[in-house]
Amino acid sequence: MYAMSNSRVSSSEREAVQRLAPQPCTILETGLADNFLGDLVCKHLYDAGVLDMSRLVERLALTGAVLEEVLTFLRKDRRVEILGQAPGQTLRYGLTERGRAAARDALARSGYIGAAPFPVSAYRSLLKVQTIHHGRISAHDMHRSFGAMVLAQDMLDQLGVALNSGRAIMIYGPAGTGKTYVSSRLIRLFSESIWVPHAIAINEAVIEIFDPQVHRRLDDDQQQNNLLLNEGIDRRLLHCERPLIITGGELTMEQLDVRYDPFTRQYQAPLQLKASNGLFIIDDMGRQRMAPAELLNRWIVPMEEKRDFLNLGGGRHCELPFDLILVFSTNINPLELADEAFLRRIGYKLQFGYLKPEEYRRIWIQETERLGVPYDPQVLAYVLQELYGAENMPLVPCHPRDLLNMALDRQRYLGGSGPLSTRELEWAWRNYFVQLDFLG
């Protein structure tokens, strides 16, 4: 997962989320059943032994008012009892024998012990409010974000239009031409922050959404836990940057559907759900274990209808908005992955190619500056004419970085310093590319 910087949220966006998800002050306002919350509190008490109100607030991400209502309900049901006061005059709560039995029964049905989940009906609305398909990217935005990158203006404009379209994108071309590098940085164009639930509740099933490996939390004073704070945005939602998920040849079909672990009795969200309101890049398309057609067919309905159907097992399904930018990246001819009829469903196909000599020179100069190596135009001329020209090798964007680094490795090994020589670059060349001389 790649992080982006300078995330922000406008007052209008915050107000929209505030209206949709205000801090609940009663059980009814949480959108969850009292029995469901009662079971969750019992599981927390079973896990921790004894908890005071501040710890319950922290664990369940609910207000003190809501938890007071739940605890009153549990005490009447003789599942919870007061075990005196903690320092600071706060009451301490623990389970009765009846409560421990109820907690074991609840854990047998669901192993989830975490923050109170967000109801799926409200989550659908939240995804729509925070949509990434706002169509606000301009040519100025593209050139400001990628101005330092050696990329043709036509390609920048193609990318910008594609991102605004809301349709899937396929980026294809030879290996090393910058497909992954560029696509992974598209998230920088979407600097608005969003709110991500710890988990969502679909009837009795709880699916964890927040993933610290995917979602980068933002500092937000309004999200501080405070026992008496009954205002602000629902604390079951975490303030995060828009997510970016990149997956490659390791991707399996199982990762694209809800997974249930029978040992922990917990549900895990599919990758595309974790990427909601962000970018999901399938890199090395065609290198996965499943057939390309099988993987591509998984996206037909989401791409066309902007909704995804998740299988919860036992004949249960759930429909959720498919709100993300889906990017396929491959160095295989797209016509070998799918027929033309399917490729038409993917809105934009962008071809990344080899460099022109002037573009290669600009990248070479950028890399010498980054590495602190003096730029010598004669050395570059030697590389282009005597190495690339002699072997008819195409100019690839990743080559300057790799060749210069390898030449520096040799220089440091031999105890040298200063400008790189043609001999050092030729040595790097011979070690970088596969040599076929042994076949003769």
Automatic annotation (TrEMBL):
<feature type="domain" description="AAA+ ATPase">
    <location>
        <begin position="165"/>
        <end position="352"/>
    </location>
</feature>
<dbReference type="InterPro" id="IPR027417">
    <property type="entry name" value="P-loop_NTPase"/>
</dbReference>
<dbReference type="InterPro" id="IPR003593">
    <property type="entry name" value="AAA+_ATPase"/>
</dbReference>
<protein>
    <recommendedName>
        <fullName>AAA+ ATPase domain-containing protein</fullName>
    </recommendedName>
</protein>
